[in-house]
Design a protein that fits this description.
The structure is a single chain. The chain starts with a helix and ends in a 13-residue tail after the last helix. By secondary structure, it is an all-alpha fold. 63% of the residues lie in helices and 0% in strands.
C-alpha cells in the first residue's frame, strides 16, 4: 500500500501533507499507512482517495489494474494522470491550458484541411 500511495504523491506532484488535506485526513494517518503501522485503512480513506484523485479502488487496494479511472470512461493511465494533474490546478489556470489545447487543435485542423489530396498514388497536384 505504501508504494502505491507514494506513487500517487509523485504522479500528482503532492507532498504528504497536501495529499492528506485534499482527502480530509491527518498527515499522521497517512504516515501510519506509509510506515506500515496502519495496514487496513478505513473505507472512508479509500473512498476519499478514489473520489478526489480518480483512483481505481482495485489498484489502490491490490496494485492490480489501471491506476486511474474516470467514471464511465476507460482511458490509459498516462492520460488519466494528465487529467488528474490538470484538475489539481486552479480553475483559472485550467482555462488557460484549455485555450492552449484549443489553439493547437485549431492549428492542426487548419494544416490538415490545407494539405493537398493525393490521388492515384502520385504526389503531383493537378491544376
Amino acid at each position: 500500500m505504501s508504494k502505491r500511495i507514494e506513487r500517487l504523491f509523485t504522479d500528482l506532484g503532492l507532498k504528504q501533507l497536501d495529499f492528506a488535506r485534499k482527502i480530509d485526513f491527518t498527515q499522521s494517518y497517512i504516515s501510519q499507512i506509509l510506515n506500515g503501522s496502519k495496514t487496513n485503512p478505513s473505507p472512508r480513506f479509500y473512498d476519499a482517495v478514489c473520489r478526489e484523485f480518480n483512483v481505481n479502488l482495485k489498484w489502490l487496494k491490490t496494485g492490480k489494474g489501471e491506476t486511474y479511472t474516470i467514471p464511465g470512461l476507460i482511458i490509459p493511465s498516462e492520460d488519466a494522470e494528465l487529467i488528474t494533474k490538470l484538475r489539481l490546478l486552479p480553475k483559472s489556470e485550467q482555462h488557460i491550458i484549455e485555450d492552449i489545447i484549443n489553439t493547437f487543435l485549431l492549428k492542426t485542423m487548419t494544416v490538415e484541411k490545407d494539405k493537398p489530396v493525393k490521388k492515384g498514388g502520385n504526389n503531383s497536384e493537378k491544376p
